[in-house]
Amino acid sequence: MSTLDGKIDRLYQLAPDEFTAARNALAKSLTGADAALVKKLIKPTVVPWAVNQVYWSARPAYDRLLKCGEKLRVTQIAALEGRRADVAAAGDAHRRAIADAVREAERLTAGMKAKPGGDALSRTFEALSLTPTPPEAHGRFTAELQPAGLEALAGIAVRLEPDTPDQSGSARLQADRQRQSDRQRQADLQRAAEITSAEAELAGAELAERNARQSWEQTHDRLLAARKALTDLKSVKSQV
Question: What phi, psi does 79 have (nearest 5°)?
Answer without folding.
Answer: -65, -40
